[in-house]
Design goal:
Immunoglobulin-like, Rossmann fold, 5-stranded mixed beta sheet, elongated
């Protein structure tokens, strides 16, 4: 909340006059500013208007003057103080006071419905642990900001609807992103610093909706003048315009992303657009390659039970997302192969996924050297007399399975895959074989829409779907009736 006072014009204000100096909704009381860095404060005023900005942690008032269009912006250095801070903006006839500001870690949480899914869950689609999380949610060191779900045809400078920072409580947490909250709650506890979480997501949205027109024009012509904004989730650039562009001046530490279901039938294009989107965001935030951690889509039926080598098999999207780790600098992936539900595209295991995003952040961003954030990744294959021996990266402490491995298939030169037996050998390799294939050449693991991951590394981080081949004509052996 902003306190706005006028000197000598109180009655005029009460009867409808607008403040000359205005701030974006995200710059408000209760906000968290990224600690120990330079942050941006910005807003609008009358053209060429002069005023002062006093921050409680800055010794001298900052003199500000709006430009000829009425825009103003100042850079302010923050500290690591855990004390509450204030900001006072004062002109000749106006005072704006922002209170209860904290310095801490600020993370953006974006994507589609699995990121938007709240702590309480959707109706008939619960979140595990929601009651306990909500009951324990009161924490003045966690602040939440929800960007209204708006699509726009052109880049907006403000989010367009009233929104404000909220302190974590039962009332604010139940409706906030479960992935974001579980990530932020643990980060706050571990680092013992305030955490600010910005939710900017939209269910059913495609990646093309989250990238700017300038960046997307590199891959397709964008003309949305006549687009129906009631369908903004599938309109190219619409959510970038309405939900990302207005907040890009706000300094963040990094971003969390859970999206891909809306694009799963075109994984090759996703490998192009998604890295371009990340690069686009980083360019606009002007903060270099800030950390970007994302979730691989979870297994789900997709009403295509027999998909194997077609664009309706989401294993190809999981493969594409895994490859994006190498295409996006300073990124990491949370594998959710064991956290899906066959008939529910919004699985309840949100904390498990948030944990894996957190491990990425702790190990890569915050220097927790003994926290393991990387899942095992297929590396190479060796043909042996017993079968195909698979080797993996990121398995310094070995592989693990809770019981028998499943989900492995093997093929020979006919490119027909048969169910296979698999076992962990030497604690770090996997031996795959089948009596149906005497001369095996390739292995696929979890290569279906709906699967249950069974292969882990020693920290219980699951391996992704993978294949050792690149065959376009592969098929699956038909089961005998």
């Amino acid at each position: 909340m902003k306190k706005i006072l006028f000197r000598g014009l109180c009655l005029f204000f009460l009867f409808g006059a607008e403040a000359k100096i205005t701030l974006p909704a995200i710059v408000s009381s209760n906000m968290v500013l990224q600690r120990n860095t330079t942050v941006v404060l910005w807003g609008w005023a009358d053209p060429k208007e002069k005023f002062t900005l006093e921050a409680s942690w800055v010794e001298e008032p900052i003199k500000v003057m709006a430009d000829a269009e009425g825009n103003w912006r100042v850079d302010v250095v923050t500290t690591g103080s855990k004390e509450e801070q204030t900001i006072e903006i004062e002109s000749q006839d106006q005072t704006i006071i922002l209170e209860n500001i904290l310095f801490g870690e600020v993370w953006l949480c974006s994507g589609q419905s699995n990121m938007v899914m709240p702590v309480r869950g959707f109706n008939g689609q619960p979140t595990f642990g929601s009651n306990e999380a909500i009951a324990k949610s009161a924490n003045a060191k966690i602040r939440l900001f929800v960007v209204p779900q708006i699509g726009a045809k052109t880049p907006q400078i403000e989010i367009g609807k009233m929104a404000s920072w909220e302190i974590a409580s039962q009332e604010s947490v139940w409706k906030f992103s479960a992935i974001g909250y579980f990530f932020g709650q643990q980060l706050q506890e571990i680092l013992d610093v305030p955490v600010g979480l910005i939710q900017s997501g939209r269910g059913g949205s495609r990646v093309e909706a989250w990238i700017s027109k300038e960046a997307l024009n590199e891959f397709q012509e964008v003309n949305i003048e006549n687009a129906d904004m009631s369908k903004s989730r599938i309109v190219p650039t619409a959510h970038f315009n309405g939900m990302i562009n207005p907040i890009t001046p706000y300094t963040i530490k990094g971003a969390l992303w859970y999206q891909g279901e809306g694009n799963f039938t075109n994984p090759e294009r996703y490998k192009t657009i998604f890295p371009a989107m990340v690069e686009d965001w980083r360019t606009r935030w002007e903060m270099g390659d800030f950390p970007f951690y994302f979730v691989q889509i979870a297994p789900y039926f997709y009403n295509k039970p027999d998909a194997f080598n077609t664009n309706t098999n989401s294993a190809f999207m999981r493969e594409a997302q895994l490859e994006c780790v190498d295409l996006i600098p300073n990124s990491g992936i949370a594998i959710a192969l064991d956290a899906g539900e066959e008939l529910n595209i919004h699985p309840a295991k949100k904390k498990e996924v948030a944990d894996r995003l957190l491990y990425n952040a702790l190990s890569q961003t915050y220097g927790y050297a003994f926290v393991d954030g990387t899942s095992p990744v297929y590396d190479s294959m060796e043909v042996t007399a017993e079968g195909l021996l698979l080797k993996f990266k990121n398995v310094d402490r070995g592989l693990y399975a809770f019981g028998e491995l499943s989900g492995f298939e093997i093929a020979g030169e006919d490119h027909v895959f048969y169910p296979a037996q698999a076992k962990i050998v030497n604690r770090r390799d996997v031996l795959v074989s089948s009596e149906e294939v005497s001369q095996p050449l390739a292995v696929r693991y979890a290569w279906s829409n709906w699967v249950e991951g069974t292969l882990y590394e020693d920290s219980f981080l699951p391996a992704s779907s993978f294949r050792t081949d690149n065959w376009e004509d592969a098929s699956r052996a038909q089961k005998e009736e």
